[in-house]
Amino acid sequence: MNVKRAINGLMRAAYIVPGRPTHAQFEVTNKCNLSCEMCPRTKYYKVKITDMEYEVFERVLDALLPLRLATLTGWGEPLLHPRIYDMAALAKSKGAQAVSLTSNALIFNDYHYEKLLSCGLTDLRISVDNFSETGDGTGHPSGAKSMEKVAELLSRRKDALPRIALAITIYPDNYKDVFTLIDKAAEIGMDGVAIMRMNDRFEETVKRYTFQEENQVCAEYQAWAKKAGIKIGTPREFSHGIRRILYRGGTKCPVTFDNVYVTAEGLITPCCALPKFVTGDPEKCDIETIWKNEKFKKFRVEQRSVCVHCDLLDITYKKR
Ligand code: SF4
Ligand code: SF4
Fold first, then answer.
1. Do 255 and 270 touch, CB atoms closer than 8 A?
2. Which of 15, 246, 304, 307 has most ligand 2 atoms within 8 Å of CB, for mutation?
3. Would you tell me how many other CB atoms lie within 10 Å of the CB of residue 129?
């Protein structure tokens, strides 16, 4: 295991991409039960609102296997797909090492509790950004309601899997609520908290921290989580140590080293933030060929011109 990790680290450092992607993110549906101000899917990406057909999922999954991670979430609430649990079970039974999805938890009920805990999912992320009943108008609303439902889910979990973590997007208006959410997550027995940076790439009116402010508040959240006894990850780790080297001066995004995105139509793109940058159709061409075709190769060389202001290239916002 350690030898494999060391080889992977060396390949990453040299940016020698593997022969095929090992992680795939499926846009199983882009329907959503919310309409967050920060969401780019309809305003900017203008994606056609639809579910991925189950048969398309099956075929593309087969083309992509073996996978270390199958993420069954793109833009949208994945639990709105009528066959989401069949998809998770299929990915797991066909050998995906990890199967994850992200939900806002608002539609959890007895049916979802039972399925979430039995379908083969290894990781469940819950997106919640504040603790009020109505929300603050920016992030995912109704955090209190979501957390009640997550507490119920955890009370029914008998095994270590799925790991259930909280994903919180931070911005000045939810500064205080994040402390409350960390406490709540620890209290109900969640497995961790991931602090996410607010993306203002498309919605410039959304308020977010400067890089220096973000470092400061993340340090406060880390100390708070330590006291509460829960694991936490923050964007600070993206800009320190070895990770900083892997970004190669803001020219290479680590996401595209081993990951592909599958749109609701079943097409391959480099990531969820580039839903229109199609590099191939896995129903017409094998995945190794798509992964190394001219469009993908050119993209890896000229990534900055395609990704423009993505935070994963401007990790310290210096270029803003
Ligand atoms: S929950 Fe996610 S997909 Fe749905 S509107 Fe909010 S940001 Fe967009
Ligand atoms: S830099 Fe951003 S837009 Fe480009 S591939 Fe990485 S995550 Fe996607």
1. yes
2. 307
3. 28
